[in-house]
Amino acid sequence: MISIENLSVNYKSDSDVYTAISGINLTIPEGGTLAVIGPSGCGKSTLLKAIAGLIPEYEGTIKINGDEVNPKKQTIGFMPQNYGLLPWRTVIDNIRLGMKIKRAPELLDRKVLKKLMRQLGIEGLGHRYPTELSGGQQQRVALARVFALQPDVLLMDEPFSALDAITREEMQDIFLKLWQKNNVSTIFVTHYVEEALYLGQRIAILSASSGNINRIVDNPLFGGKDIRQNPEFFEMSLKLKNSIKKDWNQAWEN
Amino acid sequence: MGKLVSLWYLLAAVVLTLVWFVVSQLVDLPIIPSPVLVVENLADIFMKYIAIHSLYSLWRIGAGLLLAVAVGLPLGVIMGYFPQTDRFLAPVVYLTYPIPKIALLPILMLLFGVGELSKVFMIFLIIVFQVVVAVRDGIRAIPNETYYPLYSLGASFKDIFFEVLWPASLPKFITAIRVALATAISVLFFTETFGTQYGMGYFIMDAWLRVNYLEMYSGIVVLSLLGLILFTTIDLIERNACHWQYK
């Protein structure tokens, strides 16, 4: 369970204070997923970084399972936009990295890791380096790295945006399968409405200018079978897109 | 290193020796002796006279290098990782970096004497700036995304150093040493022409003053081989320590 109350983040430069996000209220139930969607520069990444404990100075509260967010105490899996794999470590060492930092050797069960890698289709790549892999394969390694940790919360920044459309859909399916098995509370940022609809139980739409949440939509289609083929999926994504466009256009005009 | 690479080294040595041979035959003066005579002479005197000189030169380079790494690496890491410190230290580095270090030799000699210390310190000064700047730039080039997953797991500075900073700056750091080493060897040669009875610089200049051209050339060949050994060692270290770059 993640609960965010009245969260604001200001960036200070030498002469200026700039508000990235303000007055954010969100709750994600245990094992739920939330999609955050918004135009670039609206503070999506800032929100994610704050929850990841990467921003030390913020106003309001961020609680994970009842405790204030603290990277040392909780296990926070963060998957950045370009996967954040270390080019000088092999695939298997990249996956193990989190446990090494968490000093959690009990998670270093070879069988579990092997099974995870098999589920992700990367079991033969353990000794390769990230630069030898395709974008899709790197994405799988990044997923293995966060899921292997069994995190309290999983945060993903534009997780599948660098992939081509077909690989992206494949990765979304793989993610959903893993998520269902592991039941990890997940927040992810995206600019694809379809991705938000496919992976998000709830969808938070950020407003274009003020850095707060415009509204939160419950996603009735989430978890259904083959919903991408469903006419309702098209209808809903179109509706969502249009309403977002309207919001954002209004913001630009003001 | 592969067989093929060694073969290229051999070929280069053969070609250079051939050019030398042809020139020596054309000029036909004692100042350019035939390589055959030089090699014969080298075989005769290497163990007797030259080995001790080359060891002295190697020790000075090694000590200067170690000192430069011990100072330059932490400084480069601090400047690259903490931008605030770079703001203060960068002007200091940039003001002192362009000074030809050999111009500081009189000062070093007055401070540290004409013996070992000033020679080692000279090499240190030549290498340390390159190391600082290379390590700093290597660390600056790391994208923030590389740190985020580690920070969000509560990584300590030690974790960050060994998982990210050290491996990211290692190739840059090795390249810096490779570049600086050539300058260091030529300056070492110069500093070995005074205040010592040992070192390749002393040996070559001494042979020249005694008008013993065969010995002088033997010394030059040894100096070249010394450089070759140093550079191939660095290459080997790089291949082992930065294997991800060779994939």
Written description of the protein model:
The complex is a heterodimer of chains A (254) and B (247). Chain A has 254 residues and is α/β, with parallel strands linked by helices. Chain A has 2 domains: 2-74 and 152-253, P-loop containing nucleotide triphosphate hydrolases (Rossmann fold, 3-Layer(aba) Sandwich); 83-150, no CATH class. Chain A is built from 7 helices and 10 strands. Chain A has helices at residues 44-51, 91-102, 110-119, 135-148, 165-182, 193-199, 231-253; strands spanning 2-12, 17-28, 33-37, 59-64, 67-68, 76-79, 153-157, 185-190, 202-206, 213-218. A 6-stranded mixed β-sheet of chain A has the order 6-7-8-3-9-10, sandwiched between helices. In chain A, strands 2-1-4-5 form a 4-stranded antiparallel β-sheet, covered by helices on one side. In chain A, strand 9 and strand 10 form a beta hairpin. The longest helix of chain A is centred in the C-terminal third of the chain and has 23 residues, at 231-253. The radius of gyration of chain A is 18 Å and the shape is globular. Chain A starts with a strand and ends with a helix. Chain B starts with a helix and ends in a 6-residue tail after the last helix. The mean pLDDT of chain B is 91. In chain B, helix 2 (35-81) packs across helix 5 (116-140), helix 2 packs antiparallel against helix 8 (200-209) and helix 8 runs antiparallel to helix 9. The radius of gyration of chain B is 22 Å and the shape is globular. Chain B has 9 helices and no strands. Chain B has a single domain (39-246), classed as MetI-like fold (Orthogonal Bundle). With 247 residues, chain B is mostly helical. Chain B has helices spanning 3-27, 35-81, 83-96, 105-112, 116-140, 144-151, 157-191, 200-209, 213-241. At the A-B interface, strand 6 and helix 2 of A face helix 6 and helix 7 of B. Chain B: It is a multi-pass membrane protein. Chain B: It holds the Pfam family BPD_transp_1.
